[in-house]
Amino acid sequence: MAATEGFVEADNAEAIITRIEHKSRKIETLLKQYKTVEALKTALEGSPPNTKDERCKSANWIVVHRALMAIKDLDALFSSLDPEYYDILMKYLYRGLSTGDRPTCDQCLRIHEKLTEKAGLGCILRSLADTVNTV
Asked: Considering the domain boundaries, does residue 92 fall inside one?
């Protein structure tokens, strides 16, 4: 039975990867139209993938990272980003900081500062305390 459960998870992972690939194409289209805030919203929708499969998490991170790095106007971002996205965005910011990549870290710190101003310290605590929805 354990082998069957692993197989179901693998099928589920493939379905999630397919959805992430579709989301990636949509985000690239939005970025080409200079709709960076919409691209980030799209990237955050349905995140994190409800799986323990690292391939899915990595694939989703790549999509979110692409949208994060395109954001230039933070005021426009937070004037149109719904508060429901704040906690998940914070999780991805910490994932970005953990990469050690200088441009990624710089961008994540810029967004982190504004997000903390907008959402408060509770956003940080919720993102760190949530062990179920890992990115």
From this structure: yes
* The total number of residues written for the chain in this structure: 135
Query: What are the pLDDT digits (tens) for 44-79?
Result: 988 776 677 889 999 999 999 999 999 999 999 999
Tally of CA atoms within 13 A in the half-sphere of 109 that contains its CB: 10
- Do the Cβ atoms of 115 and 79 come closer than 8 Å? no
What residue type is 13 in one-letter code?
Answer: A
**CATH label of the domain that carries residue 28:** 1.25.40.190
In one letter, which amino acid is 119?
A: A
- Beta strands (DSSP E) in 5-128 are none
Residue type (1 letter), 83: P
44 contacts 75 by C-beta, under 8 angstroms: no
Angle at 102 between CA 54 and CA 76, to 5 degrees: 85
- Is 109 a member of any domain? yes
Residue 134 in domain: no
**Domain range for residue 19?**
2-129
Instruction: Give the number of domains in the chain.
Output: 1
